[in-house]
């Protein structure tokens, strides 16, 4: 189908050139966001107003050729067929796109610069560690001391799951219960929106973010850094599984979280080892990881966090 679409697009371009259509009209047809592309737009317009200016010369040349001999006819019908096939392909493609979930990447490349935030203004720290390592607790400390905005990917997903009318609610629910990772487009879009909101609310384009529990997979890391903002470093809370398990089971008594139970915890540990640890290792090779032992009590861990962060970033980061 893509060949037919390309052929159709080419044919429209050819038609536009032949008929002397202005550059402005061609721009209207070909540089709209994908969802608005319509090969039929000029045809509809021309039947009412724009026809004389847009396609009269072409029409004259075809009709005179048709009546006066086979030469032009031979060129005309293949052209019409290619145009028809291409247009049909294009319409099919557009209809299919309408039924697909939004692709934030496609939208981003067309409608705005990439990445959305510049690291010159926005400082992003990824906060990683196994489930129950204490990321949320330590992030709260950093927020009060360093004026970070704290965005927990898990919290944003849970909020989206509860949002009435969300088309991702059930998907998120299933992933969380299974300790699986929600498709990155959803999480990256939620994070980007939350960052934009926080920046808008603060009234300053300078901002610091703790992105907690993200990226949990390499594709998320690449996507986020490409379309949202490059990260300055990764704060990694290292904690043995037995310790984390004890904390999660304790938290499960009151958290109400669907994944703070023995079976989900086992799955979350597996996902963490198999999928999320490679992210930590990747950033470690880049020299971007600040690793903290998360076994001691929270106040001790925080002393270590603060000291190591300031060592790495300097007092005025
Ligand atoms: N999750 C996800 N992508 C993310 C972050 C979280 O799919 O980038 C899902 C995943 O199923 C995970 C759950 O959300 O197990 C809970 O994440 P959260 O960060 O709240 O867990 P924590 O690490 O704090 O225990
Ligand atoms: Mg958490």
Automatic annotation (TrEMBL):
One Pfam family matching this protein: ADK
GO terms of biological process kind: 'de novo' pyrimidine nucleobase biosynthetic process; nucleoside monophosphate metabolic process; pyrimidine nucleotide biosynthetic process
Root EC class: transferase
Keywords: ATP-binding, Cytoplasm, Kinase, Nucleotide-binding, Nucleus, Pyrimidine biosynthesis, Transferase
Role played: Catalyzes the phosphorylation of pyrimidine nucleoside monophosphates at the expense of ATP. Plays an important role in de novo pyrimidine nucleotide biosynthesis. Has preference for UMP and dUMP as phosphate acceptors, but can also use CMP, dCMP and AMP.
Oligomer and partners: Monomer.
Free-text note regarding domains: Consists of three domains, a large central CORE domain and two small peripheral domains, NMPbind and LID, which undergo movements during catalysis. The LID domain closes over the site of phosphoryl transfer upon ATP binding. Assembling and dissambling the active center during each catalytic cycle provides an effective means to prevent ATP hydrolysis.
UniProt similarity note: Belongs to the adenylate kinase family. UMP-CMP kinase subfamily.
The name this protein goes by in its record: Uridylate kinase
Organism: Triangularia verruculosa
